[in-house]
Amino acid sequence: MVLYIIICLYILLLFALGFRSHFRIKNSNDFIVAGRKGTEVDITGSLLATVVGSSAILGTLNLTVTQGWAALWFLFSASLGLWVLVPKVEEIYNKQKLTLPQLIGSYYGNQAKFISSAIIPIAWVGIVAAQIIGAAKILVTLTGTSYENCVYIAGFVLITYTVLGGQVSIIKTDKIQSVFIYIGLFVFTAVLLFKDGFEHVEPLQQSFPFNSSFGVGDLFILILTYSTTFLVGPDIYTRIFSSSSSKVAMHSVRNVAILLLPLSFVLCYVGMYINGLNMPVYSNGINFMAFVKGYAPETIFILCSLSLLSAVLSSADTTLLSASIILMDIRKSDDLSSLRRTRIIIVLLGLIATLIALKIGSIIKMLLTALSFYSGAFIIPVLAVLYLKQKPKGNPMVAMILGGSVALIGKVAVLMGHSWGNWIIVSAFTVNALCLFFLKKN
């Protein structure tokens, strides 16, 4: 009963922040980039909560089942992408754009902006669905309600407070949620360490850096399709654009890159601890909460529950908002009718993601499929202008469409059990580069 009350109060807090933020929104700048007033604490907290979603927590825990300590690479690769981004933050911030497609358009023109505005929301709806899946699986364990009902609950909560307050409420809720995430996971890890130390955990060198389930080739693919999405990510760039200064943005990105490293060890330790107890193999995230319930006091269980819910919702709200504003592509800072249309799009995309979550139950597969499509389309075009300092003379539209499509085909092949699909994913970046640099426009 206590847990139900706390969860209800937590959801009411999110709604209250959404309502409060709703009345502070005067124009699209407020709704999309929170008026560009974010402090270092605001942006660090929001970015950390965005990055550490269900894919990072439940995904890393599940990867330890097959990969052992090599699962460290999952968040290590995310941190790597952010570290590489740090030197470019000031340049990105000074463009004073609202979205990644607007940034792409400033380099490649309106056609490239239009294509990216159409492609990115497709991939990002898949990521929103992955977070709803994570939230639903957590709620199943906490409430005993059916998976379908929990999907509806998660979707409703997510859509409601995102529609109400936009970026203003998201940054506020993310900051609170990042505290729950970090405290909850670290406190629970401390409980396990105090109880048994490393008794049930295999030595680090036994499965790290590589093992039979995770080799050099797997790391290469992970960096190519996952690390790069943090270097060129719509959600990351939105946080940069929401900062009060380029210095705040740069420090915030650096802070999160650092914070991800100890978090990776914490998650892998917990995963290896579970594995070391020789329990039944956990195929999804819902059993993690069952494990916490059986191995920690009720207060720790409640804290971990809030931690996981925070991680999931904080990633989902940012992704949903990013997809919606990119699709809407608001141009006028005082166009309130555009704000209304954007809110309608948030509801529609949220409903689509909810329906996808009802049909697909794998968080990590959903996430990596969406990110493969995205990375194949946009990594090369954005990095080219950021690092080469000149616009390639090829065809960016064809490069984005073909690169994303080929990467998606490769990822589907991998999910069907064909390892050669990884080579198709690699070839997607080659196809993208060839079209971008050598294929002339008509």
Helix content: over 70%
CATH class: Mainly Alpha
Low-confidence stretches: 281-286, 330-334
Specify the overall morphology: globular
Please give the CATH architecture. Answer: Up-down Bundle
From the alpha carbons, calculate the radius of gyration and give it in angstroms.
21 Å
The biggest sheet, with number of strands, parallel, antiparallel or mixed sense and barrel status, is: none
- As for the number of domains, it is 1
CATH topology (level 3) name: Sodium/glucose cotransporter
Q: What portion of residues belong to β-strands?
A: under 5%
Which sequence of SSEs, written as H and E, runs from N to C? HHHHHHHHHHHHHHHHHH
Secondary structure layout:
Blueprint lengths: L1 H21 L5 H6 L6 H12 L2 H14 L4 H14 L3 H6 L5 H9 L1 H34 L3 H50 L19 H16 L2 H8 L4 H31 L9 H10 L2 H31 L7 H24 L3 H25 L8 H20 L5 H17 L5
